[in-house]
């Protein structure tokens, strides 16, 4: 399943249900963008009227307008975030339920093929990454994109020449983000595997706690636990380091940008082509634009984490059972309860070869029969075939002459 199909699937089955709430959050994202842009724009009349022209008639109006803009931004941010958090938790519950439902219905072979600890890791670690990308990622995509557009409009309104210089930072940040997002996908997969190993180890640890005590293996298990935790720690550190790499790059780019703008602005001011109030309003808009540019540059990595996790979760949800219940099958009429295996052939994996080959057995009803043999000879397999935990590749199994298939 490619990235495009994963996005479509997540939207169709999990986020489409909450489209009204997403639109609600998007509406408040627009208000956040407008109020943030207003804060930058208000510096223009504030400096011009209050400091340059010393107009006392606006001494209360402009400060109150700035307070109002910040308040509206804060309230809107709260409403947008709480809405998306609510959606994220709903999506998490549905993903986890769909996965558990699939595992409950799954063939025994599917469950035995993978340790329960790894399923638990999928259920927690992977699902959290998916919901983070849907809730935090989608909110930031709306909020920061619209905010950036609004601030760019303020910047162009104040001075289009300076704005063109500042815009150069956006594609540079995108290039860095794209490079790091490739790395984050690989590291996330590795971290999920280590998380699965740790969960598997913990399941085995609690299951075999008596044996550890009997054989005095406490120190050995402590060493194993330390090893598993160290492996996971290293992978999580790599993820955080990859995310953090954006900071020095963005800080350096911003430093170059501000230095270039101050150099060029000073020449424009000297030529009377730029007023001080316009420059400060422009500078405020550009500084406020730094956060959305940085957040948007990190989004690619957040979405890559989510896609990587979804590529492991969705196949579990979508898996089809090889053993199908027959809706039109007849009920077996028990008489003596005699069970017959007729030329039964069975394998778990084709590559491993047959576990049972041309088996013919009769278990007489009303009598106790013992299966004796070395470990791995197929005793448990024979018993598992009777209730159809697995289906034979060829041959037949009958109860009182009636096929169980």
Describe the structure.
This protein has 405 residues and is mainly alpha-helical. It has 2 domains: 88-318, ABC transporter type 1, transmembrane domain (ABC transporter transmembrane region fold, Up-down Bundle), CATH 1.20.1560; 339-403, 3-Layer(aba) Sandwich (Rossmann fold). Helix content is 73%, strand content 6%. It has 12 helices and 4 strands. The protein has helices at 3-15, 19-52, 61-105, 108-113, 116-158, 160-167, 169-207, 209-214, 218-244, 246-270, 276-318, 379-385; strands spanning 339-346, 356-363, 394-399, 402-403. The chain has a 4-stranded antiparallel beta sheet, with helices on one face. The longest helix has 45 residues, at 61-105. It is elongated and about 105 Å long. The model has no long low-confidence stretch (mean pLDDT 85).
């Amino acid at each position: 399943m490619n990235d495009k199909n994963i996005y479509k699937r997540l939207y169709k089955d999990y986020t489409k249900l909450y489209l009204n709430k997403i639109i609600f959050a998007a509406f408040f994202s627009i208000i956040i963008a407008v109020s943030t842009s207003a804060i930058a724009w208000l510096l223009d009349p504030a400096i011009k009227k209050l400091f340059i022209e010393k107009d006392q008639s606006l001494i209360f109006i402009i400060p109150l307008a700035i307070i109002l803009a910040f308040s509206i931004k804060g309230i809107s941010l709260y409403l947008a975030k709480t809405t998306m958090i609510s959606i994220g938790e709903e999506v998490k519950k549905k993903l986890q339920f769909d996965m558990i439902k699939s595992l409950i219905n799954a063939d025994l072979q599917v469950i035995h093929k993978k340790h329960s600890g790894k399923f638990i890791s999928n259920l927690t670690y992977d699902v959290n990454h998916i919901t983070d990308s849907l809730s935090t990622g989608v909110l930031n995509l709306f909020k920061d994109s619209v905010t950036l557009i609004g601030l760019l409009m303020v910047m162009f309104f104040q001075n289009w020449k300076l704005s063109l210089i500042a815009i150069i930072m956006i594609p540079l940040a995108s290039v860095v983000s794209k490079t790091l997002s490739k790395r984050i996908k690989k590291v996330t997969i590795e971290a999920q595997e280590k998380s699965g190993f740790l969960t598997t180890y913990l399941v085995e640890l609690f299951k075999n706690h008596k044996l550890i005590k009997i054989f005095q293996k406490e120190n050995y298990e402590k060493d194993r636990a330390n090893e598993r935790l160290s492996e996971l720690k290293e992978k999580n550190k790599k993820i955080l380091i990859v995310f953090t790499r954006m900071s020095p790059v963005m800080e350096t780019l911003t430093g170059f940008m501000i230095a270039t703008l101050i150099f060029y602005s000073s020449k424009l001011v000297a030529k009377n082509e730029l007023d001080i109030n316009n420059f400060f309003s422009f500078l405020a808009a550009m500084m406020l634009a730094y956060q959305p540019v940085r957040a948007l540059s990190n989004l690619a990595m957040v979405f890559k984490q989510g896609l990587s996790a979804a590529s492991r979760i969705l196949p579990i949800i979508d898996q089809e059972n090889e053993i199908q219940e027959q809706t039109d099958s007849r009920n077996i009429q028990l008489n003596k309860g005699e069970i017959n295996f007729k030329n039964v052939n069975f394998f778990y994996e084709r590559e491993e070869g047959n576990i049972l080959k041309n088996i013919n057995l009769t278990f007489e009803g009303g009598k106790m029969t013992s299966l004796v043999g070395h470990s791995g000879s197929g005793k448990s397999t024979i018993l598992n075939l009777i209730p159809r935990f697995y289906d034979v590749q060829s041959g037949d199994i009958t109860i009182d002459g009636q096929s169980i298939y």
